[in-house]
Amino acid sequence: MKDIDWRAIDRRELATLLANSKRVSSRAIGATTIYRLDHDGREIIAMALPDGAAVIVERAPLAKWRRRIDAQRTTPASR
To answer: Where are the domains of the chain?
Structure first.
């Protein structure tokens, strides 16, 4: 399973996100509305909660990995 990030946002931030994203789908479940968004190529799930708060969920960015470099290795110029 891929790692995911989530965070709480306020109503204003949700409105900005909705205005700047392509809405793929949305559905109301009780007093909560769930949006599936495409924001600059990133898939985001946004949930507008009845109290005016919201939660967004998206895949965690891939960790940039580095190759291990052997500190002991030297490359003599005379070889």
So the answer is: 4-59
